[in-house]
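ugh ok fine here u go
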Amino acid sequence: MLILICLPPPLVLWPVLGILGSLLVGIGYGFFTPLIATFEAVGEDVVNKLSHCFMDGCASTIRGACTMVRDFTDFCFHSYFSFMDDLSEKVADDEIPVDIKLSNLPRSLLVCLLAVPVDVLMISIVAFLKSPYMLLKGWQRLFQDLIGREGPFLETVCVPFAGLAIILWPLAVTGAVIAAFCSSFFLGLYGGVIAYQEDSLQMGLAFMVSVISMFDEYTNDLLYLREGSCLPRPKYRKAQILERRHQIETSRNEHEKTIAGSNITRLTSERSRTLKKAIQQLKPIQIWDWLFRSCELNGKILLHEGLITAADIEECIIKGKCKKLSKKLPAWCILQCLVRSAKCDSYGLLISDEVELTNFNWPKDKVLDWFLGPLLIMKEQIKKLELNENEELCLRKLVMTNSNERPEDWDNTCFSSTDNVKRAQLQAIIRRLQGIVANMSRIPSFRRRFTNLVKALYLDAVETGIITSRDGSSKSRVNISEQISSTEARSNHTDESYAPNRSNSAADNSDNV
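structure:
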């Protein structure tokens, strides 16, 4: 009900905010990109610096702006609906849909009306009473660091800023009291959620009292006062209270261990700094380029072997339905990398003969960090399976053509092993890889680059005569060729980061895939 009431204002403001955000991004990108290019044009190795100062940053900014618009369009019309498709899939048998019980809403509303004034008043009082101690405790700690030249006073350059922190510390205390006052509203409203979840008015009222005690204990821990709280803390969960107590005790023990080992970690971190400086970290665009380059080379091989048909390519180019091809082709490329890395007993992932991805040179990118951990685990799982050469070759066909849902799906196939456990593990790895690739396909630049990749495969198939041996009318092939020809020049200008090299044959590059 609260969401329905608050929904119209953001819907009305959304177009206005979208227009303003687009203007700000366009102005910022159009100003700072040429500015940075101008500074780069006066480098040491640049010839004719005067001409470069005027020329650099003009055409590249326009191309970059076009690329940003294309990626944002793909995100709006591809990634968004991909998320919606996942949410709208059929509910599994072991899942229970969440139904809002209207009969529980009056109870939750009553708890909110009672909890908000009580919690706001009590939490504000607790914060106000402990604010003088927080003020004195902070000043004491800052002056001790000043005398002992520790903490923020360790470096001479930081002394003025640390002195400013002493002067402005009352403002920090005032901000803490204001933050406690603002958060008390949300804590009171959460009592209604507890009453709804537990289907009990008593549990909601218990949370109203218990949250005051939890806030008091939190402030005691923050100010290094005695543990716990003298305020009552009734139970507000029916089934999870024992589990929550166990989690709290476990977290406290882990916190004590981290404090005890902080001195050791400081020493090891100082030693590891010199080692990290010597390791050259890869950039995310290098990983991205490797993936699409591998998809191009493997795509040509699979196209020659008939595992990728002309119908798949035509459906992707004409109808825009690349869901099958965009999942299975990258998944096979990554699986091949995992198999090669496990066979070579590599510490990380071998993306080429000269480059190995490890925890040290992996790009410090949050999105890419989500993929490295699972890939390393799957590499170790493949290593324990000990695949032979025939099984490795058979995986190519199984990934591209089979459903890989049950071990029985691999019966009467080229996979020689009859071990159902081994089959199930490999099928689980393939399904997980396809899930990772499905998430990668929602990254804005993926759709643009994969579309260019499919067009390159189509042109390569036309040049080698493979496309004529497949099913499909000549009229559709002419339309596709005209479409590629009309958009090839534009795609070359809007996508500098990926330019498929169609001159190399699949046979020449099969050793480097």
